[in-house]
Amino acid sequence: MQNIGIQAIITLAAYFIFTGVAFWALQAVRFDHLLRPGHVPQAQALFIILAAVLGYLCTSFFLNFIDNTRNLIFLLR
Predict the structure, then answer these.
(1) Rounded CA gap, 47 and 41, in Å?
(2) What is the pTM of this model?
(3) Measured over all CA atoms, what is the biggest interatomic distance in the chain, rounded to whole angstroms?
(4) In terms of Cα–Cα distance, which of 11, 21, 12 is closest to 50?
(5) 59, exposed or middle or buried, with CB in 10 Å at 0-12, 13-18, 19+?
(6) Terminus-to-terminus CA distance in the chain, angstroms?
(7) DSSP per-residue letters across 21-63
(8) Which positions ≥6 away from 19 have C-beta within 8 Å?
(9) pLDDT (tens digit, 9 = 90+) per residue, 17-56?
């Protein structure tokens, strides 16, 4: 049971870290050229959603990569 709790903490931490990194990285993109003027709340919501989506995808890739790497041991047995 403790192993599941540790895995949950690592997963949540990875979600927050990768979402923060995605938010930071998206600030380099100029979205003002893509969006209509006067739609600031929608642009901010889109920015947050994009950061969450990128953070989720990066976290899923990272955690799946680690799990698959750990499972390679069973191939060698």
Answers:
(1) 10
(2) 0.81
(3) 62
(4) 21
(5) buried
(6) 26
(7) HHHHHHTTS-GGGTS-TT-HHHHHHHHHHHHHHHHHHHHHHHH
(8) 51, 52, 54, 55, 56, 59
(9) 999 999 999 999 887 777 888 888 888 899 999 999 999 9
